[in-house]
Amino acid sequence: MLTSSLLLLAALQQAPVQLDLPAGLPERFQTTLELKGRRVDLVLKRRSLRAEGFILQNTEGPIEKIPPSRTYFGFVDGLPGATVAASLEPRGLLASVFMPDDSIWRLSPNETYGNGWHQIAKAPPIPMEMCGVDGQTWSANSTGPSGRAASVPPPTGGGLFVSPFPWDWNMRKSRIAFDATYDYWLREGQTVAGVTAGVEYQLAENNLVCSRDAMVSYELTGIVIRQAQYYVGTTSGALLDEFRIEWDNNQGHIPRESAVVLEDYQGDGIAGLAWVGTLGGGHAYAGLYWDRGYSPGIIAHEIGHNWGCGHIDCWPWGGSAMCGSWLLYGPGSTDLIQSRASWLNLPIIPPYADAVRPYADPDWTATDAQADLLVDALDNDYDANMEHIHVSGTDPVSEQGGTVSIASGVGPGGRDLLLYEPDRTRVGNYTDTFWYAASDSGGNEHWTPVTIDVTDRKMVAEWAFEEGTGDLVEDTSGSNNQGRIHGPSLLAETADPSIVLDCDTWGWSPSRNLFDNSTGTEFASANQGVVSTNLTRDPLDGTWLEMAFSAPTDIAGIRFMDRANSGDWLSSFRLWFSTDNVFDLNDPWVDISVTSHTELVDYPFDPVNAQFVRLEVTAQDNPNSNSHSLGGCELAFLFETGLTEFSPPSITLSSNALAGFPSSNLVDEDSSTEFISNNQGTVGSPLTQDPSNGTWVEFDFGATLDIGGVQFLDRLDNAAWTKESRLWFSNSPGFSSSNPVKVLNHANQAAKQVLPFAVQQGRYLRWEISKKEMLSWKNSLGGSELTFLTDINNNPGFNRVPGLHGDCLEVTGSTQVSAENATDVPSSANAPFTINLFVNPSTSLSDGTLLGGFGSPLESPSNQRMFEIVGGSVRFAGLDTAWPLPLSSWTMLTASHDGSLLSVYADGVEIGNWSHTFSASSNELHLLAKNPNFPDARFLGKLDEFAVWDWGMSGVEVSELLSGGAAHGPLPFDTQALVSTSPQLEWASGHNSPLHNIYFGTNFQSVRNADTSSPEFLTQQGSNQITLNNLQDLTWYFWRVDEVYPNGDTIPGRVWRFRTELPWTTTVYEGFNDGNDGDHLDGLAGGTAFAAPWVVPAYNGYKHRTGSIGAYPSNLPLSEADGFFERKAVSNLSMEGGRDLDQTQVNVDLAGDALYYLSFAVKLEGNEQGMTAMAGIKDPSSGNTLLVGSEAGKWAISGSTGDITGIATAKGRTQFVVLRIQAKGQNVDQCWMKVYDTLSETVHQSDSLLSGMGSGTNEWDLISPGLQSSGNFTQLFIRAGGSKTYSTSKVYLDEIRIGRTWTDVTGL
Fold this sequence. Notes:
single chain, mainly beta, 9-stranded antiparallel β-sheet, 8-stranded mixed β-sheet, 8 helices, about 5% helix, globular
């Protein structure tokens, strides 16, 4: 593989300086200069990098008179941590000063001034546009070595950088040679001494860097000087290959692990080229093609490729040798270099001779949000001088608000550790970073980041079945993942909707083909792929259609079959539901992930009532396909019939059957078997008893039952499908024409069909086929499965009965429990989890019975996080424990995955463990899900206490579950804000009726570490709730509940947190009445409920004006202050400004449940089309905003509750805007905006008079889509300006109010 390098810019120069330099080449010397405004001394010592037997030759052969080495190394006296590589030449001193912040300053003779004058300049960052590797992505933020401030985020995932252990370091030596081409000969003055010195100076810089960063020093074994044109290639690639052939054939006598050719730029956009991973072997060559062969940074980059490094390490310092061409190797590169050096067994040499800073390798670790983390940051750091290193500094506060301190002497060997404590007022999961410095005994230090994945252990769901009645299963974990018992109610097809609107389609594949009940026709868009915008009506934008039912319809699922061409298969599509024919972002929607393409598949979801449905394709199965004519073959909508299955009846009589396919197969609950008549076709006459006449079967239920429908699956052979059949009912064994009869019309025979009808009583039933499908030419009719159905209330399939822990769920039919779109499910790839379930089967379980877990039952077994029974034994994720599940007794089953190891337990005892990886799964929770591979598998028995956690429990923690588990499901929920100062605290108890030890206080550590002797201990009680009184306003409180069990076990709880509310004492009001006309807004005050004046960027055009813009509609009982805000509608100045709220009077917090209101007046004046005038709030800690008003000329809501844009904002008219903000602590926050023309409209007396979104008088103008935000918004914030750099148009704002009610901001 060939890899290109990067361009080196000219340095940014400072004023020339005259140096006092020695004559000759002394072993040591120092010289004084001014560097970064300080007068310092360069202290230098001569040291050659030449190998013993160093070879210097030209094209004709060896050069006998070898010039002396001119390389020096040293430090900067007066600037700790700065190191120097230099070359003392007749024309002056060339020196590179490596600063502590990893920037480089270069000193060189000033040829214009002469006489000892030199130029010093800081080397600029290296642009990256000359990298020619296909697919290589460079970070746009990589602007230069940044020391402490990493400008590039870390890569995804941790544990990437593992260096040698401390005090077990090895410094190694690698041999290198150079080919100085004719261009380089010209560059260095056409002298052997000049070329030799130039090569050695570039190598000196590389040697210092590679020694310091990767503990590998270079030894120069030879230089070949071309004193005439030698290489004839005209591109960098051709030259590199020509160089390789020359050195392979003619320079084998020069020992080396790598060689570099120094050449000029070839005009092909490539500044350097090298083979990757070849050092020490064949093709160990690199080429520099820039500035006639000069760029030590590019040399570092290209040799890095020889070492095996790719274009990596933009993180953490913003750039490196391999991310740009800086003389700095990043953590990924140093690992590769050291690994290859060890693999090649390069010679171990003494420590590096000149003082350099240590190398602090970045650290990546993880912690529980409630734990204290000790980080052994020095564990992977090292020092090329082999000096002991220590932690010399650290950030006191991490990026995410955690605290960091040095724990002295507590690590291995007595070294210092870093103590990290996450912010105790926030919930994981998030990534945090802080920086520390590793320092040697000389004070040379290196800063690097520690990255921590902070996780907050959480119970995701718990279904305890204590509801008493109904099909809703409460989630007692506090995560709101309620389940629904829904298995018994079967789905049937609705009447097909009509097509209202659709995208462009191929002429022979219209959208109506979806509803023609034919798998031979298809709907296909005109090669348009997925939609680019939700709810688009552009017929050329993606694949979509809109449908209408004749009346509002209950929809609980769909039946779908994809197109035949695999290149056009779908991955997912979205269904939108509306009660009117206009779809908007507030309409409910369901995402469908297509799990099978070649057959009709049912996709159930929570029922929704709608008359209008929109389908839009959101993802293609193969996005790289050359075809994008997406669509489908068949689509049907399903409704819940309210019917459930009866147990199969017995068969009393039937027509003749083909041998091996008896009529009993029709009711054996096995869809893989068939009843096939003996080629007898349809019945010749109704109610015939002739076994050779037609196809028919008679049944006996043993008692008179209410029958409300059947579920039928036809034969596998589509040449023998049924179109119509009859079902006769009787209360005696015989049948007559006077008996009730139901005619069943069959369609979509490839799938199970539910055929409901009005309830009919009967003990004896007769089924006979009266018509076969038109294209079915065979008479061997019959069926795969016939199931009789009744009202779910007659046979619900489940009961709540006493169980092991309170009530449990008793399953008597085809029952399942699920939550289709559960939140916080640990469903990402290899995410840790624990699943726990108490199970008590009453009968032997058939193969494929899925007991419980999460993910989709349609996924492969190895990726299902589900318990399954096969051969009577327990499996999980397809892995067999070989442990038989007992019948008629309770067993606690637990599966725990820590990210790599999967362990399965029965009653707390491990019954199997495996190293196992999971890919991402869906976020569905399931008990007794239908297994598509075993459709007839079912569970009968009892279930209880199903729970899921987002971490992998240890064996000890699993045994605690058997005792009863920890308290969970707190109310207020963890980190809830706006809690009353006299709250009632509640929680879900563990099982087995524990007592509760309750701890409470204002300090996290004190509550976490408390025992019953601590002041934080409140009480021990049996109740799972306690009321507190007279807490402080706006204060964080911490509480913990330990469960104390009768067996003596005490299981500690996690620390829960809440913040109390601040009762508002006023309304926020800004009338812009402070200052003189034309004053800049910065520093102006006035208004109420503010803690400080306005803070606005200087000269940004924000002005206070006196007068009025007519802010209020006529019915508002408010008085307008003298003054308003003005700004020109331009974009070339900062468009934002803020003012801190007084948090002793008001508090706008979206982390709890609350309503807030905002109102203001706005006016746009002029012809500019893109004017912006928005008011709102800001959370300074996160930078998040919530703004409303005119954005780029259109009404808009933007920020923390989602973005939505409406119609154009009217110009020249004052508009009065009211915004309602609804904060939901555990749900999405949402905003509603209403705009009133102040001259022609009046404001509603209450927001309860407004509903829906539209242009109507009593409709909201905009409703935000909703996002979950937990910010504390402590600033009033405005954004105003335009889209052009010059404009005479202006925008105005006035009379801004924030309150808790509609009355607060309107006066009504």
